[in-house]
Amino acid sequence: MGSPAAQPDATLLLGIAAGGVVGSLGRYAVGLALPHPAGSFPWSTLVVNVTGALAMGLLVAFLLDRPGAHRLARPVVGVGVLGGWTTFSAFAVDVVTLLETGHGGEAGAYVLASFLGGVLAVSLGSAVGQRIWRMAA
């Protein structure tokens, strides 16, 4: 058996929770700015998920170029802020709702746009981040 998992400290947990609040409130604001009735294309969810993927690419590039980055950078920003910002569950509900309301073509386009957009956004964020962080070093 492996060693027991390290116990997170209060600072780590509070940082992740605070980051989650920031990300969730931001996602909520985007939902208010880009509302969509059930069965219509879920632009707000697509926007937060693709921009979250872009931000994750930037974060990963930053952390790889700075091995001495603060120990809370990845959990607070990656798990907290970006975890609160992005939403797989809303994506899944949106796909099912589009299908149930007879919008199969839009559901397929949404799945494709979310997947390809997310992968391309992480790649772009990583490439841009590597250039930015190396120039700044």
UniProtKB/TrEMBL annotation:
GO cellular component, one term: plasma membrane
Keyword annotations from UniProtKB, A to Z: Cell membrane, Ion channel, Ion transport, Membrane, Metal-binding, Sodium, Transmembrane, Transmembrane helix, Transport
Localization (cell): Cell membrane
One of the record's GO molecular function terms: metal ion binding
Binding residues annotated for Na(+), in chain numbering: G83, T86
Single GO BP term: cellular detoxification of fluoride
Regulation: Na(+) is not transported, but it plays an essential structural role and its presence is essential for fluoride channel function.
UniProt xrefs under HAMAP family: FluC (MF_00454)
Protein name per Swiss-Prot or TrEMBL: Fluoride-specific ion channel FluC
Lineage of the species this protein comes from: Bacteria, Bacillati, Actinomycetota, Actinomycetes, Micrococcales
